[in-house]
Fold this protein.
Amino acid sequence: MTGSRDASLASTPASKARKSPTSIRLPLDADTVRELRSGDSVLLSGPLVTGRDAAHARFAAAIDAGEDLPFDPAGETLYFVGPTPARPGHPIGAAGPTTASRMDAWSPLLVERGLRGMIGKGRRSDAVQDAMREHGCVYFGAIEGTAALLSQCVTSSEVIAYADLGAEAVHRLEVRDFPALVVNDLHGGDLYRDGPARWRRAPR
Amino acid sequence: MLDAYPLARSGMRPRRVCGKPCGVREIPVDEVADTVRRLCVEANHELRGDHVDALRRAREREESPIGQEVLDRLLANAEVSARERIAFCQDTGYAVCFLEIGQDVHFTGGSLAAALDRGVAEGYREGYLRASLVRSPVDRTNTGDNTPAMVHYDLVEGSGVRLTLLVKGAGCDNMSALRMLTPAAGVEGMKRFVVETIEAAGPSASPPVTVGIGMGGTFDRAAVLAKKALTREPTGSPSPVPELAELEAELVDAIDATGIGPAGFGGTVTTVAVHVEAYPTHIAAFPVAVNLDCHSHRVRTVTL
């Protein structure tokens, strides 16, 4: 992992200097996951799996019925996204993150099975955060509302399960330099808690 | 039977439909459908200029480096989406239509409601926009074309039609709230409720948000007012009612004070605009609805 201080931001008053983003290869390995810290800026490259509400309901049903999941969660990074349709000649349409808390009820099932990363937006429940720390999974926040930019980081996309769900189908994506921030690390950091706490003030 | 509308049928204007000139204006529903189609594409591909300006102002007053980075990316995203003709947010949302219809308007050529849906279906197909609606909360089968449109009709004087399309993402709509306050809770209670709603939403509403507040009326009227408040143009323009404009400024400060910041990563800007609309209500009531809109603000208004 590499990273250097950005001089222009380091000189901003009353600010924590921003490190330049760290490039990370997917799939994530356990050492990399352990080194990540809440607030780190990363650029992810490699394979991702997508899934959101309807797919997670099916993951849970499959686990309940003792069936195999459509992918082995061990070592994978799951992106909560339902893209717009791709224009001809493009691998994917707009592809920003959706609210991760809607997957909270199901995420521990995948984290217990070795899932190493999740990408979404918004806070995770205590139960999910506990499971992540216990099993070694990190939660990245992508910036919602940058769906056009993020789509440019996707180099290929194919449906691997539940094609009938359309935008909610499970896809295998290849991404290059996909930007995200570490929200929940393995050491108790939570950017959605710590970031606002740093900037909170009394109303004028 | 006496044909009361011979000239209207002939398509001539002006026409007499009641024995004296009434100025009834005919608008083919196909024109409505085509307008909705065009607006769906435009609203999803091009962030409105005044909202880009609001984000630029947010960037200027944001002090957190992460917050600055988020705002820079949002502005870059708006450029890429317009250039590449791609939605700037993948949640291309509900298509909410507000129609203010002059009472002298006569829609011709079929059903107005069907034309609105046709416009949405065609726009979403043409613009490569995501179909995000399911048949009901219980039967969650996708309707396939993002219909039905969520339509609010208002009958007004005149012979014009004002059509506003609001493309509303679910992430922020889900974090909206309504409370029936008491008159005793007053404006202070209302402000507390607004800030509580923002705190509970946190990053999930995709800040910096536009906040639409509907006060007064009934339970249902407050909710519609809040949604309509989001469509005020330009973003961040103050209410023409001085006490509401003052309240809006106080709420911007109270919301920014939460520190939630752009994307919820912490910062000095959590809202780009608070729009408050008020309506007469009951002596026993103080309804307040808070409708949040993410930074991907998609609103277009036209006059037909």
